[in-house]
Design a protein that fits this description.
1 helix, membrane, transmembrane helix, transmembrane
Length: 55
C-alpha cells in the first residue's frame, strides 16, 4: 500500500517536471521569436536608412 502511494507520488512529480520543461521550451521559443522580430525590424530600419541616404 505504502509502495503504491510512493509510486503515485513519484509519477506525479515526473509529470510536474515534464510540465515545467514544456513551459521552459515554450518560453524559449517565444524569446527566439521576439529576437527574430527585432532583427527583422533592425534590417528594415537599415534598409530605410540606406534608401534615405541614397535619395
Amino acid at each position: 500500500m505504502l509502495l503504491l502511494i510512493l509510486l503515485l507520488l513519484l509519477l506525479l512529480l515526473l509529470l510536474l517536471l515534464l510540465l515545467l520543461l514544456l513551459l521552459l521550451l515554450l518560453l524559449l521559443l517565444l524569446l527566439l521569436l521576439l529576437l527574430l522580430l527585432l532583427l527583422l525590424l533592425l534590417l528594415l530600419l537599415l534598409l530605410l536608412l540606406l534608401l534615405l541616404v541614397y535619395y
